Amino acid sequence: MPPPTPKLAVPDLTDAEFAELDDLLAATPEPLQPVDAVMLDGFLCGVLVQPVLLAPETWLPYVYDFDAQPLPADADPAWRERTQTLILRRYAALNHAIVEDGWFNPLILEFDDEHPRQPVAEGEIDPMEGLSEVSQALMPWVAGFQHATLSFPHLDDMPDDAVMSALARLYRHLPAQTDEEREVVATLDAEHPLATLDDAIEELVVTVADLSDLTRDLRFKVETVRRDAPKVGRNDPCPCGSGKKFKQCHGSA
């Protein structure tokens, strides 16, 4: 019998808290440009699967602004504390789910009568032009994931075909910018078609779990510290040049 899955010390966000977080992010002081709750979800996964362990203080600025401009000193402390609390709870929940279960529930907003797509203003480019309905639903989440990989390019820089293949399976839901990207998307659509949104979400989750597995050893690699100078014995002369034994000088601390 497999061991029981450890309970999450900090509970995941409720639907009401996701909605609250979206409103809090939208209230980020101008001129900063924050992510929304859906993009945040993808961004956090992009942070978690990096081949380096990133501390929250490193990636949080990219949540509040795409260029990581710092929050103004006079930002409301209560707003800042509540927003960060919810962000870090979702980060912890995703990390736990990916590591312990190999599965998580991404925050995907399916466009329907209740949540229609926002119309594109006249003269603006439709960011979802050319995408299937399935990819339109996943695009904001994947755009958040890509925001993490652009902000922290360690993952993109890995010389690993398996990593590149996994990223292609995610980025197929973004508008293709080049002929090469269009060719990759066409190949994936032909070889691994996604008939429904559920199919696409399952592939997205499995892909993120694969990336986590592919990068785990590097992410938690412990560097061996090499001692360049020989170890000083307690009865040896102190290296400071005092003439005293090490144990009577700097070794006494």
Structure description:
The structure is a single chain. With 253 residues, this protein is an all-alpha fold. The protein has eight helices and no strands. It has helices at 15-26, 37-48, 56-64, 77-101, 133-151, 161-171, 179-191, 197-219. Helix 1 (15-26) packs across helix 4, helix 2 (37-48) crosses helix 5 and helix 6 runs antiparallel to helix 8 (197-219). The chain starts with 14 loop residues before the first helix and ends in a 34-residue tail after the last helix. The model is unreliable at 1-6 and 224-229 (pLDDT under 50).
Write the layout of secondary structure elements.
Blueprint lengths: L14 H12 L10 H12 L7 H9 L12 H25 L31 H19 L9 H11 L7 H13 L5 H23 L34
Helix pairs in contact: 1-4, 2-4, 2-5, 6-8
Q: How much of the polypeptide forms β-strand, as a percent range?
A: under 5%
Category from helices, strands and their pairing: mainly alpha
Counted by DSSP, the helix tally is 8
Report the principal-axis shape. globular
What is the total tally of β strands? 0
Mean pLDDT: 86
Helicity, in percent?
40-55%
Order of helices and strands: HHHHHHHH
Compute the CA-based radius of gyration.
Answer: 24 Å
Low-confidence stretches: 1-6, 224-229
Q: Please give the alpha-carbon distance between the first and last residues.
A: 51 Å
Please sum up the structure shown:
The chain is mainly alpha-helical.
Keywords:
disordered N terminus; mainly alpha; 8 helices; 253 residues
